[in-house]
Design brief:
The structure is a single chain. By secondary structure, the protein is an all-beta fold. It has strands spanning 3-7, 10-13, 18-25, 33-39, 46-51, 58-60, 68-73, 78-83, 92-99, 104-106, 110-115. Strands 2, 4, 5, 6, 9, 10 and 11 form a 7-stranded mixed sheet that branches. A 4-stranded antiparallel sheet has the order 1-3-8-7, with no helix packed on it.
Length: 116
Amino acid sequence: QVQVAESGGGLVQAGGSLRLSCAASGLTFGSYTMGWFRQAPGKEREFVAAISRSGGSTYYVDSVKGRFTISRDNAKNTMYLQMNSLKPEDTAIYYCYATNSMTQYWGQGTQVTVSS
């Protein structure tokens, strides 16, 4: 059974940092592209960042470039999102996903709240 689970969310002041983790089990982790989406209250879910299977390529939405860093440790079946210089507009539920050419798995989400 495949499981994808986020952790590391919380409440932080503007300008602060958080590191989210996404642990996956029941799949061949290194065969999946991984990434993060987020959904703020009253808004649609939006893409945040993605990382290739090897970790050699990363992609970000413009609004987080230079502040967020996505990484993965294939030996630990875990992906990370280091979030620095957080802004109130980063407040959202953050979801991780794993995808290959045939399927996609999602976590349940972790709440990130940035106070001004």
